[in-house]
Amino acid sequence: MKLPLSYYSNQDVLFLAQDLLGKVLFTDIDGEITAGIIVETEAYFGVKDKASHAYGGRRTDRTETLYNHGGVSYVYLCYGIHHLFNVVTSVEDDPHAVLIRAVEPLIGTEIMELRRNMPVSKAAISSGPGSAAKALGIDRSFNKKDLNGNEIWIEDHGIQYTSDAIVTGPRIGVAYAQEDALLPWRFFVKGNKYVSKPNKI
Asked: What confidence tens digit (pLDDT) does each residue in 93-131 have?
């Protein structure tokens, strides 16, 4: 069952970043459906978060997507190489987002193997936000897509993790964010092999 729009309007991005663990992210590209279980996320707390693209109320062509009502995708290019997929959350003009850092392949694994040129048994196939997006076929064309639509969406399959099974730690690659780089806003499933940097807590 697709998550309803009301799910994404929750203004507590830290809650959603943890609650999205175990949810299943789907894409349908030209009839090819792939899906993965979300096993690693990072929360970005809008205008107050020095690691957020919207810090200080910054509004550019790129960041404008973040100011939408929750329930759309925010996809941007990192280092000119990797597409990173984020779930926009909260309400209009409150630019919160959750970065999907890793997924565990679930559906359409053969398609993922072709996209990533490696077997699904290799954790690197969908470990890390660039790899997860590539495995699912997500590129810039997916920016600002409705997460209730038929191209990209998230379902609840009843997979839940206890608080003991969720590890929290600082986000990765945000050293520029000064003290906000140390906030424990990265969440991942303990022991899951597809987590991008399981030892970096």
From this structure: 999 999 999 999 999 999 999 999 999 999 999 999 999
Alpha-carbon span 94 to 88, nearest angstrom:
10
Please give the Cα distance from 131 to 125 (Å, whole number): 6
Token match 């890793």: residue?
A: 102
**pTM of the full structure:** 0.96
Would you tell me how many other CB atoms lie within 10 Å of the CB of residue 42? 25
Phi, psi of 26 (to 5 degrees): -115, 145
CA distance 178 to 180: 5
Task: State how far the Cα of 102 lies from the Cα of 130, in Å rounded to an integer.
Answer: 9
